[in-house]
Specification:
By secondary structure, this protein is of the alpha+beta class. The protein has 15 helices and 14 strands. It is a peripheral membrane protein.
């Protein structure tokens, strides 16, 4: 994906961002730093904006020379969506966003030693670290009758760790503080110096549920730097893989959401239907998560007529069963009473936080990368983008249900119009220190992968902004006003991923 690039001194970043955002017509979709001292003699802050009314991107690159103070004016006072990005930049690069209202550590926890910045080039990923001893401050909520309820970081379910601290007055939640990034894997550091072909395996495993979306964003960024031409058949098969991934996620997520209120029949049906789709994935690719299908230059395998028939038969049966499951939900007043008006994320809050995907569309934001910034072969297919305005758990459920139906339609279109010919092309050499980024619409929302090439076809810098990254802060907005027993329901309706943060 391309757009305009503006290179400025870091001191003018806030003024430049004000102009580029143009009163909200361009929204901040990613912000990150890069240690370019070896290549260009400075640190760089990148802020990428996407048009909300037109399909265009604008990137600001703010530079901090080696002899300048390691600081830049914070964008958070202008746009709340910058808050986490700037805290992460401060943690990993030691660059201070002046005027940021909350510079508590985000990625690096209190056992990390101060003054050590792991994404600088003079830090090697295998450096042994002494134990740090700082304290993480949780702002208290004070008042008569207010008490705190800590949950996690170890949970009863088989999920990654995350700590939630609720402040309550009576039964109602009045504030939620979330502390995450407990199992950060350092993927962006570990791929430095790796060939593009080897780093693909790391990209593919950032998150199990979004393997195709992440891999596709990664390879498209590499292909953009190389100027590679992907065969049409390869593009069609990429769409097929992406929609099969969306289908099994949405079907399973609807069942999983019902676990938050103990609606066991739909939990079981959701698990059963998801299992059918994942077994289909394994029959097609040998992997339940569709790993290994998307490759640099196209896809790693074609599909046979037997596979086409298998997909069609599986989806025909699933569509009928899934419709019956949705009827169970739509006709159950007790269920509807729990999901309607629960966990509301207001439209303006979703806009301000840069929320993406299902959560955004359930709060009235009409956006979908597949339609707004078409990639692969999405421009060749007809599909609708469901948008709801009730902003609650119910809206997030119905968006998934509608999108699952649309995914089945896209899969049918792909199979009916699959072209012949090659499904994988060659990858030309990549010019050192060239850059590119790519976006895909994962089951949870848009994912952005940015790359800078190093010497000899290896990676200099890799940045990933998953769909869950801008959506996690939205949970702290949707939870207050509800009771703690409804929090699992609210949480599951966002279907947020810990692994996508711990990259």
């Amino acid at each position: 994906m391309t757009g305009t690039l503006q290179i400025i001194p870091a001191a003018t970043l806030r003024a430049a961002a004000t102009v580029v955002s143009h009163g909200g017509q361009y929204r901040l979709i990613a912000m990150f730093a890069n240690d370019e001292r070896l290549a260009n003699g400075y640190f760089a802050i990148y802020a990428i904006f996407a048009g909300s009314r037109e399909p265009a991107f604008k990137t600001i690159k703010a530079t901090i020379k080696q002899d300048e103070p390691p600081e830049f004016p914070s964008l958070t006072p202008l746009m709340a969506s910058a808050a986490w990005y700037e805290r992460e930049i401060h943690d990993l690069f030691g660059l201070t966003p002046l005027g940021h209202p909350d510079l508590r550590p985000l990625v690096l926890h209190e056992n990390w030693p101060q003054g050590v910045y792991p994404l600088r080039k003079d830090f090697t990923y295998d450096t042994p670290m002494p134990e740090g001893g700082s304290e993480y401050i949780v702002p208290p909520v004070q008042g008569e009758g207010v008490f705190e309820v800590p949950v996690g970081p170890i949970h009863a379910g088989i999920i990654e760790p995350g700590h939630f601290r609720f402040s309550q007055a009576g039964e109602n939640i009045i504030n939620l503080e979330a502390k995450l990034f407990f199992t950060h894997r350092g993927i962006e550091k570990a791929v430095e110096g790796l060939p593009f072909t080897m780093a693909l395996y790391r990209a593919e495993r950032i998150c199990g549920a979004c393997s195709v979306a992440n891999t596709l964003a990664y390879v498209q960024a590499v292909e953009a730097m190389a100027g590679a031409e992907v065969p049409v058949k390869g593009q069609y098969l990429r769409v097929l893989a992406a929609e099969l991934e969306r289908l099994y996620n949405h079907v399973g997520d609807i069942g999983n959401l019902c676990a938050g209120l103990g609606f066991a029949p739909v939990v079981s049906h959701g698990s059963r239907l998801k299992e059918q789709l994942m077994r289909l994935n394994e029959r097609l690719t040998g992997n339940r998560f569709l790993r290994g299908w998307v490759a640099l230059g196209g896809v790693g395998m074609d599909i046979t007529s037997v596979m086409v028939k298998d997909i069609q038969q599986t989806l025909a049966g699933l569509t009928k069963d899934f419709s019956g499951v949705l009827d169970l939900l739509r006709n159950n007043d007790s269920f509807l009473d729990r999901v309607n008006t629960t966990g509301i994320l207001p439209y303006q809050a979703a806009v301000d936080l840069g929320v993406v995907g299902v959560a955004a569309r359930a709060s009235g934001i009409d956006s979908d990368v597949r339609r707004d910034f078409p990639y692969a072969a999405y421009q060749d297919f007809r599909f609708s983008v469901p948008v709801y305005t009730s902003c609650d758990v119910a809206a997030r459920l119905w968006v998934r249900a509608d999108e699952a139906a649309e995914s089945a339609k896209i899969v049918s279109q792909v199979l009916d119009s699959l072209p012949s010919g090659k499904f994988k092309g060659d990858l030309p050499p990549v010019k050192p220190y060239s850059t590119a980024f790519s976006m895909t619409e994962s089951p949870r929302g848009s994912s952005l992968h940015w790359l800078m090439a190093g010497e000899s076809g290896k990676i200099y810098r890799y940045f990933v902004r998953s769909a869950s990254y801008p959506n996690w802060p939205a949970l702290t907005v949707a939870a207050p006003g509800n009771i703690i027993p409804d929090f699992p329901l609210v949480n599951k309706s966002f279907e947020l991923c810990y692994a996508c943060l711990d990259r």
